Amino acid sequence: MIIRFSVRNYKVFKDEAVFSFIANYDKKTLEENNVIHIEEPSLRVLKNAVVYGANASGKTKLIDAFAFMRYFVVNSSKDAASSEDIDTDPFRLNTGSEASPSEFELMFLIRNKLYRYGFEVTRKRVITEWLYVQEKKRETELFYRSEDGTFSFDKKISVKWNLIVNEKLVRDNVLFVTTLAQFNDDLGIELVNYFKEELKIISGLNEIGYKGVILSKIVDSDYKKKILELLNFADLSIMDINSIKIKTSLDNLPDKLPQVVREMIKQDIQSDNLLTKHQVYDADHNLTDVREFQMGKDESHGTQKFFYLTGPILDSLVNGYTLIVDELDSRLHPNLVARLISLFNSKETNPNNAQLIFNTHNSNLLDGKMFRRDQIWFVDKNRYGESRLYSLSDIKGIRKDEKFEQNYIAGLYGGVPYLQDSMNVKIDKAVNDENEK
């Protein structure tokens, strides 16, 4: 469960941007459904959050920051040579920041233990890295990796970790946490597995990132039942769905074809062999038959996206994971997106306190009956290309009964494009006349 995330000097975020899941105001507004109450440590944590902003303001870049941290924690020690660059991307519109390290920090909860983990990196090396744990309201430093390459450890585990450091097993371009997991350290494994398994990040514009989840689980009868419930929930008129078992051969593909392309081709073949069942009626609307459609050929793009989304959604709801989606509402009706959000806000469908983070341009979702003010976030970019992140609850003077959508579109909260009243563009009459012929 995410409590707080911060990023500095990464892509459009020159200064520190803090994304908090702490419920930070009254205990009356949507408290029962939208807020998770944790006894130890004592916390009120939000179940979901939505991010708004103009095009190129930084909405996707915020999700990129989550994705970079996750990827680097999971993969920094895998097949990485000591000379290999780190794929970070500092803010490049300022001469001071482009040569400075990027910083990432995540505060998260694992079995009532509150961890705060972060690092600073350049393209060449890890500058600093730290890990703290909070139990019974007291935060303890587990380790700190200094800029000069030295480490300080908690006294209880310093002997075990000192051996890894003294044997120079931690490369400059690799995280210490990832190295610990590589050498089968229990805490290292637990933390890396959290990033790998419990932090799900997908793009709503491209199904390749999550299509495989549902394709691999459709054969499970219990899982399939939940899928059909979600499809019925979405009013897609699908009675049933089945997969034809075929032998997928990729032997004839070029050897140098990237693995991601191979996986895309494999998933496309599998999706073409998913059959949906629809009812057929006669001229008097009497039910006469059932007809099968191919998912990849006959169903709409919106239906396909929702179907593939059911994989990571169910995975998150069942296991209590955090799901982060770029452009969740792409190709989906606003009412359907609202109902998806309601799944995470329901104690019945979300008994394990899964979280949902997504960005959108859909202002219809800006409803005080759906979101608290601390669940609504904005990204705004200034004239220097620097983006800042803030929530609606950070803005003073906001009333509970305000019309959030109307005020946002009017530009009262920021995070909208500033459009010129007219374009000072002249069109060549000769070109215009030629186009009319």
Describe the structure.
It is a single chain. The chain has 437 residues and is of the alpha+beta class. It has two domains: 1-205 and 327-437, Rossmann fold (3-Layer(aba) Sandwich); 208-317, no CATH class. Helices cover 30% and strands 25% of the residues. The protein has a seven-stranded antiparallel β-sheet with strand order 2-1-6-7-8-9-10. Strands 11-15-16-5-17-18 form a six-stranded mixed β-sheet, with helices on both faces. Strand 13 (274-281) and strand 14 form a beta hairpin. Helix 2 packs antiparallel against helix 5 (186-198) and helix 7 (221-233) crosses helix 10 (301-319). The mean pLDDT is 86.
Structure characteristics:
437 residues, six-stranded mixed beta sheet, Rossmann fold, seven-stranded antiparallel beta sheet, alpha+beta, single chain, 2 domains
Q: Largest beta sheet: what is the strand line-up?
A: 2-1-6-7-8-9-10
Task: Flag low-confidence runs.
Answer: none
Highest CATH level, the class of the largest domain: Alpha Beta
- CATH fold topology of the largest domain: Rossmann fold
Strand content: 25-35%
Number of domain units: 2
Indicate the percent of residues in helices.
Answer: 25-40%
Calculate the terminal CA-CA distance, rounded to whole Å: 62 Å
Q: How many extended strands?
A: 18
Give the overall average pLDDT: 86
Rg value: 25 Å
* Biggest β-sheet description: 7 strands, antiparallel
User: How many alpha or pi helices?
Assistant: 13
Specify the overall morphology: globular
Please give the oligomerization state of what you see. single chain
Could you say which structural class the secondary elements and strand pairing correspond to? Answer: alpha+beta
CATH architecture of the largest domain: 3-Layer(aba) Sandwich
